[in-house]
Design a protein that fits this description.
With 224 residues, the chain is mainly alpha-helical. It contains eight helices and no strands. It has one domain (8-215).
């Protein structure tokens, strides 16, 4: 018996799901990995101006330049992931797909927040940067990173609400997303505390699990 060719819509959905999953894994490895690598030599949030200058000078090397470049590339992968996920979930979002639209918008906001390159500028001028300017760039970068938690939290809440409310989709992934998303938004209020990273980590683990699920064809044969 000759296998029947897949319809264009099924083939396109399968391709988009795999691209979205790969983009999610790429974001996790490149952006989160680069951030963790920098944090191994990062200065505390309460650092004075002199310590901030010293920190930026430690990043003025080939490793720091490569990390900065890869982070910029990884943020584009985050854009692919969020918009791809919004397109994949749109058929499950009802007649007026407002949640998937907000999901895509939240992804764009997260990318814009991450593209604020105050640290890159400070590292570029670290040889003669004014200490107070360095401290401002340091705080701006940290706050932009924390503000991104609100955007990624909103992304997770929108995606989770769709997963929860549609019977053909895995509700456990939906509840995980909602809990991690709400926690990420609330974490912004206490962004200087170590425990604020717990819901943020939960979001990124969810991203990894969802990405693998998409790559393995978890969305296939799910009636909208």
């Amino acid at each position: 018996m000759t296998a029947q060719p897949l319809s264009r819509s099924v083939t396109a959905t399968r391709t988009l799901a795999r691209v979205t999953g790969i983009a999610g894994i790429t974001t996790l490895v490149v952006v989160l990995g680069g951030s963790l690598a920098n944090n191994f030599q990062s200065a505390p949030f309460t650092s004075d101006a002199g310590a901030t200058v010293a920190f930026f000078r430690t990043l003025d090397d080939p490793f720091g330049a490569a990390s900065s470049f890869l982070t910029s590339v990884g943020l584009i992968a985050l854009l692919w992931f969020s918009i791809g996920l919004a397109l994949l979930l749109r058929p499950f979002d009802g007649e007026l797909p407002w949640r998937s639209a907000f999901l895509a918008g939240a992804g764009v906001t997260a990318v814009v927040s991450g593209q604020i390159a105050s640290w890159d500028a400070a590292v570029y001028r670290s040889g003669d940067i004014d200490p107070q300017v360095a401290r401002y760039a340091f705080d701006l970068g940290n706050l932009s990173f924390a503000n991104g938690w609100v955007a990624t939290g909103a992304l997770a809440i929108c995606a989770g609400s769709i997963l929860i409310t549609h019977r053909s989709l895995p509700t456990w992934l939906g509840w995980w997303a909602v809990i991690a998303g709400v926690g990420s938004v609330l974490a912004r209020a206490v962004w200087t505390e170590d425990f604020a990273m717990v819901p943020v980590a939960a979001f990124w683990i969810w991203t990894a699990v969802l990405s693998v699920w998409l790559i393995r064809g978890g969305l296939e044969d799910r009636p909208a």
